[in-house]
Amino acid sequence: MLCNELKTKRGKITYPAEGTKKGEAINNLATKVYEDLLFNDDLYTIKDELPNELTLDNAVETLEKLAFKGYISMPEYKEDLNPKYDYKGILQWACECSVLSENLTYKAYDPNKKDAKKYSAYLCICHICKIKDIYK
Please, what is the end-to-end C-alpha distance for the chain in angstroms? Predict the structure, then answer.
């Protein structure tokens, strides 16, 4: 009989695998583990990788961390070389952040070039993790 020991918030749990064939036993085991983790709110998701407070200052680093851990592809940034002026005459830099694995692109504008990059990364995280944009 196959067994799998898993460390959860509730401690170590041993899940027995049952089935007439090895493949069937592994399938049954995976289903049993998933259902148990889901039922007990122990399922680890991408949201568990986010910092306690997602801000513009940690957005670029957080997005890259998600990519390094394999949740998404590495973000790609495209910054406009020439800033434009908004209707109030304020200089605005633009930065586009793309996450190809999610088929996602967000463009952000800011008077500060670095903040435009931070906000575009922040918007991508908000979309991927389905969280509200607190800066909107």
Answer: 54
- Mean pLDDT per 10-residue section of the chain, whose length is 136 residues: 68 82 86 88 88 97 97 97 93 98 97 97 97 94
Cβ atoms < 10 Å from Cβ of 15? 16
Q: How many whole angstroms separate alpha carbon 73 and alpha carbon 124?
A: 12
CB 62 within 8 Å of CB 54:
yes
Report, in this order, helix, strand and coil percent for the chain, each rounded to 5: 40, 25, 35
| Helix runs in 3-112, H state only | 22-39, 56-68
CA–CA separation, 55 and 134 (whole Å):
9
